[in-house]
Amino acid sequence: MSVELTTPSLIPTLPGYTYVDEGIFRAEQERIFEQMWFCAVRSADLDRPGAWRTVQIGRESVLISRTRKGGIRAFYNVCRHRGVKLRMEEQGVAARSFQCPYHAWTYDFDGRLIAAPNLTKMPDIDRDEYGLVKVHIREYLGYVWVCLADEPPSFELDVMGAIEERLGDVKAIEGYDVANLSLGRRVRYEVKANWKLIIENFMECYHCATIHPELTEVLPEFADGLAAQYFVGHGADFGDDIKGFTVDGSEGLDRIPGIDEDQDRRYYAITIKPTVFVNLVPDHVIIHRMFPLAADRTVVECDWLYVPSVVESGKDVSASVELFHRVNQQDFDACERCQPAMSSKVYAKGGVLVPSEHHIAAFHDWVSGKVGDVTPSS
Ligand code: FES
Ligand SMILES: [Fe+2]
After folding, report:
1. Ligand 1 contact, 103 CB (< 6 A)
2. What InterPro entries does the record point to (predicted)?
3. Whole domain around residue 118: which residue ranges?
4. Which residues hold their Cβ within 5 A of ligand 2, which is an ion?
5. What is the dihedral of CA 194, 196, 197, 199, to 10 degrees?
6. Which ligand lies nearest to the CA atom of residue 201 in the structure?
7. Is residue 150 included in any domain, yes or no?
8. Is residue 76 part of a domain?
9. Which residues pair with 42 in a beta bridge?
């Protein structure tokens, strides 16, 4: 008699404290956000020399700016003199240089120390050595990806590899020409939930039938609870009577010219750990960037990107934006409802994943591999 070993229907999640504990979050900042490639800003937002943005990556503030020659540089947002945060705001344009508001040390757009009060009387100061400290950058899909690690991990494996793993081939994203699309809309969501809840929610579709009536109308297979991310290379088909990826299934915008026939009328979703979601449909691309700010607080910036002529001509993208904006609100509401329960004694050992969510266990294993040895601080 043979005994068949099968995977049980229910497998455990991470314990509740991993979503609330400050010590665990600190370890995630240190070992995940400050070590991996982190999608920071959209390159086109740095639209002229001196344009800059600041972003929080783990425990660090990073200043990202456009140089005079059109390049992009990223620095720790820390003055080399006595450590003042050079720029407190989130964005701006510097006329000629970055001058520290405390004692006026001044850096050019390449980060070199170019002036300081009495600098000429201190001839031994090496202006490069006391320049702003650079961090590694890569531009990909029209975004600036930053890595704070001294030795960055492979971008090809970690970032492009995530796309390959999902689509079956990294080339499958090329036809969408994401880097050359234009920003049609950006919405910033303040989510009172741990970043891992947001990732887990994005990875599964068991909740789709319950909370996403508009999305399941457009993508009927989502009503069955199997996410597009469950199968390699699979894109969810639009319903037969659906004309476009819009809130009411009406016609979308101009199709992205380079996509393949089999990518038409399909939706693909990709998770790029630790903080990025990419959504591909025939006429636009939606990119989510998460900024985890505390164990229970995450900012999500969501960009809707279209063929440039759509944006330039002022076409109405609202029905198209509204679909995923509602999905975002529905998802983030759900995450915010989970968050308080993460510290309930009933959830101390966590909950369970049903079979259509089993792939989330791989994400949990990955997190545990990074911070599983950390003793919770509370
Ligand atoms: S701290 Fe920046 S110039 Fe003194
Ligand atoms: Fe969802």
Report:
1. yes
2. Rieske_2Fe-2S, Rieske_2Fe-2S_sf, Ring_hydroxy_dOase_asu_C_dom, Rng_hydr_dOase-A
3. 37-140
4. 331
5. 130
6. 2
7. no
8. yes
9. 143
